[in-house]
Amino acid sequence: MKRYLIWPYARALFVLPGTVLIFLPAAIFWFGQGTHWGGKLPQLEDELPWLGCISFLIGLFLAGWTNRLFLTIGDGTPAPWDPPRNFVLQGPFLHVRNPMMLAVFLLLLGEALVFRSLGVFLWLVVFILLNLIYIPFSEEKGLAGRFGKDYEEYCREVPRWWPRLKPWIVIK
Questions:
Q1: pLDDT at residue 1 greater than cutoff 50
Q2: What angle do CA 83, 85, 88 make, to 5 degrees?
Q3: pLDDT tens digit string along 126-169?
Q4: Is the pLDDT of residue 6 over 80?
Q5: Is 93 helix (H, G, I), strand (E, B) or coil?
Q6: ∠106-125-157 over CA atoms, to 5°?
Q7: Fewer beta carbons within 10 Å, N or C terminal of the chain?
């Protein structure tokens, strides 16, 4: 790791995941829109918290792994104001182009299921829709500009959202 600055990384974690996963869901609960689905979900009501825990743990693991790679190999953070300086082609990035965003989706889904919160689930849907627009039209254009043909080849081989089972083999 060439540079290890705590403040940029802590700021990135506080502002981005903090807002999406903590502050906005807390506001949803604060304003009374966070608790329980409109009706019972037959045959799943008892399993929702367990499914939510599984989703949350998978998301937490994936977020930790991805963040570690951003720090150690990418020499940056997940934040747009301090992006990785190096193209990361290891671990989950060989299966899916946006493992960090996939992790956040899984974390939010976990929260919605554990708390049986329709409000948090609706926030997840809105967050996914916003990223369906932002990532291809803004983030990926910036990455293509920074990393050029290598990134373009990567986009052709690795799906944006749904992980491929076999890792992409980088041939150089």
A1: no
A2: 90
A3: 999 999 999 999 889 989 999 999 999 999 999 998 999 999 98
A4: no
A5: helix
A6: 60
A7: C
What is the distance between the alpha carbons of residues 140 and 149, in angstroms, rounded to a whole number? 13
CA torsion through residues 135, 138, 10, 20, sign: negative
Helix runs in the chain, H state only: 6-17, 24-30, 48-72, 99-114, 118-134, 140-157
* pTM, rounded to two decimals: 0.85
The more confident residue out of 18 and 10 is 18
Question: Which tokens hold the place of 169?
Answer: 């083999």
Q: Is residue 97 within 8 Å of residue 105, measured between CB atoms?
A: no
Tokens of 118: 């329709």
| Whole-Å CA distances, 96 to 48, 114, 117, 168 | 26, 26, 28, 9
Q: Check pLDDT > 70 for residue 7.
A: no
- Phi and psi based region of residue 75 (left: phi greater than 0; alpha: psi -120 to 50; beta: remaining): left
Residues 108, 114 contacting (CB under 8 angstroms): no
Radius of gyration of the chain (CA): 17
pLDDT digits (tens, 9 = 90+) for 76-113: 877 777 788 899 999 999 999 999 999 999 999 999 99
